[in-house]
Specification:
Layout lengths: L5 H13 L22 E11 L11 H18 L3 E11 L5 H15 L6 E8 L4 E11 L14 E4 L5 H10 L9 H12 L7 H8 L9 E4 L4 H12 L2 E5 L15 H10 L6 E5 L1 H10 L5 E7 L4 E4 L5 E5 L10
Helix pairs in contact: 1-3, 2-3, 4-5
Amino acid sequence: MSDDVIIDIGEQGVLKRLQRFCPSDIVGDDAAIMPNLEPGQLLVVTTDVLVDGIHFSDRTTSAEDVGWRAVAANLSDLAAMGSSPLGITVGLSLPGDVAVSWVERLYQGMSECLQPYNTPIVGGDVCQSPVITVSITAFGQVLQERVMRRSTAKVGDAIVVTGVHGASRVGLELLLNPEFGKDLSEKERSRLIQAHQRPKPRLDILPQLWEILASQSPISLTAMDSSDGLADAIAQICRASGVGAVVERDAIPIPSVLPRLVSPEQVWDWVLYGGEDFELVLCLSEPLAQVFVEKFAAGLAIIGYVTSGRSVCLRDSTGQYADELLTLSRGFQHF
C-alpha cells in the first residue's frame, strides 16, 4: 500500500479507490437501483453512525475492525426486525491527513463482515471533516407477517437471549488495560477481544425462528438487539409494549471467566450494562421459547418472563427480588 494521504489523491481519487469494493453494475450513477423486492416483502431501512473517539479509537480498533463493527451494528438492527440484508451505503467523513491505506482497510473490514450474507456496498458519499465519521445505511427486506417489533410483548411471554452478555465489555477492558486478566490463556483473551472487535450480527438466528414458527398464524414475536446493553433492551421492550418483566439473573449466559476477573457487583454491571454484545433479546410464548431453546441450544437461554405492571425486576438465585430495577439510565447514553 502507498503512503498517500487523502488530500494527496482528492475526492475523485478516493471514490475511484473505494468503488472496487462495490458491484460495478450498481454504483456509478447518482443513486443505486436495487433489484425488485420479492413479492410480499417490506423494505427495512436503518442507519448507524460511528465517530472516532466516541465509538472507536486506534488504541482498541484497527481500521478493518472499525469497518466490521460499523457494518455489524446495522446488520444487527436488521436482524432485530426479522429482515435479511439487501445492501448498504456508506457516508464517510475524513480529515485530509488520513492515510489512504487506512480507508481501504476500513472498506476491507466492511466487506469481510458483509461477505457471509452476500450483501454489497451499493454507494455512499465522502467529504472532508475534522474527525473521522462512518455513517452506514443498511437496507433489508422482510415478509410482512415476520416483522419483529419492540412493542408487541405480551404478559406471560418468555424472554430469550441468543447468547452471552458481558464478553464485549471484557474484551474492551483487555484492550485498554494491559494489566487486566493476566491469568487468562491466549485463547481466552483472543476470544474475548474478538467479541469486542468483531461482533457477529445474529442474522443466523432468523431461519431457526421461522422454522419453529412455521405452523403459527399469526406470528407473535418481539425483538430488539442488545448493542446498548441487555438491561437497556429489556427495558426498551417493556416500555414500548406497556409491560414489565422479571429477569432471572443466574439464567443469563455470561463469559465463564468473568467472575474470576472482577467483583460480583462489576460482573453484573458489565453483563447488564456493558453493551456491544449484538445479541438479540426476544419475547415469545413460553411453549415456543422452550422449543426454540431446546432445538437450537447453543447459547440460547430463557432469562425471564414478561409481567403486568411497568417495573423490570432482577431476581437472584435465592428467588428474591434484587434491590436493583433494570432501567435505561445506566446504559450508554450519548447525552
